[in-house]
Amino acid sequence: MPLALTLITLTPAMAASPQQQRGKVFAMNNCAKCHAIDKVSPSPLKIAPPFRTLHKRYPVESLAEALAEGIQTGHPTMPEFQLDPDQIGDLLAYLKTLE
Fold this sequence. Notes:
The chain is mainly α.
């Protein structure tokens, strides 16, 4: 197998489904200002949990209802927001890649 083909095959971004890719883009555009959205970085806002730890706090699937109804937290830096069903599916698919 040619080296270039091997590298393309092994690139994690290429392995992500379109839904996971859309979820990552959503997280980058809406969440990364405060939360770490990858597997290694610290959160830019210290009190914001890294996305890679969310599955330790909650079953990821259980976040769907909260995302649909609007997430509210006890600290003022977290904005309230609601996602549409497609956005929820995309974001949850991406969060599962971080487990």
